[in-house]
Amino acid sequence: MTADTILEVRGLRTYFFLRRGVLKAVDGVSFSLRKGEVLGLVGESGCGKSLTALSVMRLLPKGSARTVEGQVVLDGEDILTKSLNEMRTVRGRKISMVLQDPQTSLNPVFTIGNQLREAIVRRFKGSRAELDRESIQALRHVEIAAPEQRIGQFPHQMSGGMKQRVVGAIAISGKPEVLIADEPTTALDVTIQLQYLKLLKRLQRETGMAILFITHDFGVVARMCDRVAVMYAGRIVECGPVRQVFDNPSHPYTQALIASVPKMEGTDGRLRTIEGQPPSLMNLPVGCRFADRCAFADERCREAYPGTYQVGADHTADCWRLAP
Amino acid sequence: MQRYIVHRLLQGLVLLFMVATIVFFLGRLTGNPVDLMLPEEATAEDRQAMIQALGLDGSVYEQFVIFITNAFRGDLGMSIRMRQPAVDAFFDRLPNTLAIIPWALLMAMAIGIPLGVVAALNRGNFIDRLAGGIGVLGIAMPSFWLGIILIFVFSVELGWLPSGRMGGPEHYVLPVITLGAFLVAGFMRLIRSSMLEVMESEFVKLARIKGLSEWVVIWKHCLRNALIPVLTLWGVFVGNLITGAIVTETVFAWPGVGRLTYEAVIYRDFPLLQAVIILKAILILSINLLVDILYAYVDPRIRLS
Amino acid sequence: MRRAPWIPIVIISTMLAMALFAPLLAPYSPIDQTLRDKLLPPFWMEGGSTKYLLGTDGFGRDILSRLIYGARVSLLVAVLALTAGGGIGLTIGILAGYLGGMIDNVLMRLVDAAFTFPAILFALLLAVTMGQGMATLVIAISLLLWASFARVIRGEVLALKQRDFVALAKVRGCSSLRIMATHILPNVLNTFMVLVTLNIGVVIVAEASLSFLGAGIPPPTPTWGLMISEGRGRIASAWWVALIPGIAITLLVLSVNLFGDWLRDRLDPRLRQL
């Protein structure tokens, strides 16, 4: 762990314990997030991206899901060992999160102002008027017009894009060092998506917080992120600076993913899709999880999971073909 | 908002008209209405006066018009047994019923709501099953029987509390428990299932992300939303309260409108029963209208649309 | 899967047997009065004897025999009212859900109205105008049931309507009536059965309450509600007259509800909300 690392996840395993069996949704995820950077976490839906985020926040769905192994070191402390009470002091203040769907992220029966004040009062104990002033400031910060009127309104009186800005304002109101953004623009209109990404980028530059940006869209990664981690079937298969991963994708899955991104100056004008389905998380193969869909797979890929190999400076991938 | 209230008011009036119509036709089309309306010892002159007053020699349509006109003037007939206008008898007794209902409701909410929340928080474990057991028992035990058991234990055996009639505060305890218990199970089950649904919401996740305490997350963010279905089902609860009051007041000889209903039935006092039913319908509809307004307050999506 | 609820099943079977074979099981007539033996306590109490196992009431009638015959009334009313009320609810639910539009609108308004206005008031009114009796009681309790059946069934039908086999039947040119009878009805029968079991308890309590209020089957026919009503005035001197029939009601209703919960989980776990 280098000095500028703010969040380090090591060997995280989060399983669902269902009646039908154990579903290994996150199965040995490791990555680190440095101060002030944006790390993209990409993969298909169902690969365990969101669950990784919820494990880090310790907000797993009650009952069935449990983190069975691993460490989440935030600012030098393993937060998985903290009590739920201690965890409360971490959430919102040190690490925070923006959820996917702005339509359901805000409580429908309380005003925007009420929900903002609740978050702000945790770092700033002030009178009602002072809290309102802070709330208005926070809304202005996320570029909401006429914030003085907005604080008295209810969520259903706002558009989806506006709600997501409010969620953003709430999430960063505790001035966290790490923000997890879980596909924050997926539910928004295309025209609004770009505005929101720009806003996030601006906030990140101004506050210097680190962002773990979860998405399934490589185009968004190129626009937003400094580094990228590619996730497949519960594991990170490749990780490196965005430029390097784009220029030299080293895991066959990353190569396939990048080939499936539409390009303006497309070489052959055809979009490529990846054949086959990801393996069942209930019944994972012993070897490489991508082997069944991989054009290069051989015996060794099916027999054991590959190690993590260095591809370039700060760039690694889990593939037998890279073994020295 | 105003349109919503007006809309509900009109709906209520239609329902009231339906109730009045049913009451009217049941009174006319089964047997001889004069027999239903007058005491057995009534003289021929009395009968003739009744036929005149209600237009019983005219068509059913004319009779209905007279009935509705009289009803609008607050005349729903004379009680056979009490020899006073049925409407007056109802309003004489109403305060006694209204004296126990708020306490019973308070008890049902004070026990049912926290029990439902706690059951939801402990989903599937011992506490949940215990609460579930109380819920099932609450449904299985007829409330008149519960009332009799309470009398047996606390009045007869222990001699702590009076077994009936109105009086000081100690007279309220058993009737309020009986009527309240009637509602506790319903409240608990409803709150439990709506809490379970709300607790899965994304906004609850966001509330936790903010670092709010569990107490605020559960009792502010979740409960306020979980109460919405309780309010939408309020009409059913009001109906249950009216039903429960009939049985409870009968068991405890409590001189309210519930007991009055019972008396109208056992003394076959049709004019009184007719008045009681129509006035209770009005009562139910007014309470429902009030609750609709309250509902709009709790759920801003309705208030502001 | 939960284990079958054996204790409730045994209790329900016992009550069923009591209802079916009442004349064979009851030691005495439920109606004949032996005033000499009135208000005798159950056998385990001082003054009680094995002659009258559960004691006698104020007219010297054997409580056990009345209890056995009372099961007959409770279960008969339950069967008739659930057939009538449930049947009406089923029909209205299918019609409203499948036909939709104006018909659905009007029928659902009626359902809302039925939920708002307590059915017990109509039941009392019927008893006074039509006179007490089995027919009045069954009509009254059907009024209590139909709306909740209609509401749930309609919801089911709305979902079924979207399914492929219904679309296919339409393409083949089946009439609406035929589709409702051959495609919709068989698919809601599971739900209907669950509703029936969950409502047996409601009917039994309603019947007892109406009997208690003097609007049920008229005396001297023994019903549990009436027995409680007759015994409550003597609660201080002869508690068993009122308390024993109450135990029977509570046990039976508890059992059918536990059994209904289990059946619901087996047949249709989506109905948890009911």
Q: Which tags fit this structure?
A:
heterotrimer; A: 324 residues; alpha/beta; 8-stranded mixed beta sheet; 4-stranded antiparallel beta sheet; 12 helices; 12 strands; C: 274 residues; mainly alpha; MetI-like fold; 10 helices; 71% helix
Secondary-structure blueprint:
The complex is a heterotrimer of chains A (324), B (305) and C (274).
Chain A: E1 5-18, E2 21-34, E3 38-42, H1 49-57, E4 65-74, E5 77-78, H2 84-90, E6 95-98, H3 102-105, H4 112-120, H5 128-141, H6 147-150, H7 160-172, E7 178-182, H8 190-207, E8 210-215, H9 218-224, E9 227-232, E10 235-241, H10 242-247, H11 252-259, H12 299-303, E11 309-312, E12 315-317
Parallel strand pairs in A: 3-8, 3-9, 6-7, 7-8
Antiparallel strand pairs in A: 1-2, 1-4, 4-5, 9-10, 10-12, 11-12
Chain B: H1 2-29, H2 33-37, H3 44-54, H4 60-72, H5 86-121, H6 126-140, H7 143-157, H8 173-199, H9 202-209, H10 214-232, H11 234-251, H12 257-266, H13 270-298, H14 300-303
Helix pairs in contact in B: 1-4, 1-13, 5-6, 5-8, 5-13, 6-8, 7-8, 7-11, 8-10, 8-11, 9-10, 10-13, 11-12, 11-13, 12-13
Chain C: H1 6-20, H2 22-25, H3 63-99, H4 101-116, H5 119-130, H6 134-161, H7 164-171, H8 176-212, H9 224-231, H10 239-267
Could you explain how this protein is built, in words?
- The complex is a heterotrimer of chains A (324), B (305) and C (274).
- Chain A has helices at 49-57, 84-90, 102-105, 112-120, 128-141, 147-150, 160-172, 190-207, 218-224, 242-247, 252-259, 299-303, and strands at 5-18, 21-34, 38-42, 65-74, 77-78, 95-98, 178-182, 210-215, 227-232, 235-241, 309-312, 315-317.
- With 324 residues, chain A is α/β, with parallel strands linked by helices.
- Chain B is mainly alpha-helical.
- Chain B folds into 2 domains: 2-75; 97-266, MetI-like fold (Orthogonal Bundle), CATH 1.10.3720.10.
- Chain B is built from 14 helices and no strands.
- Chain B is flat, with a radius of gyration of 23 Å.
- The model of chain B has no long low-confidence stretch (mean pLDDT 84).
- Chain C has 10 helices and no strands.
- The longest helix of chain C has 37 residues, at 63-99.
- The mean pLDDT of chain C is 83.
- Chains B and C meet through helix 1, helix 6, helix 7, helix 11 and helix 12 of B and helix 4, helix 5, helix 8, helix 9 and helix 10 of C.
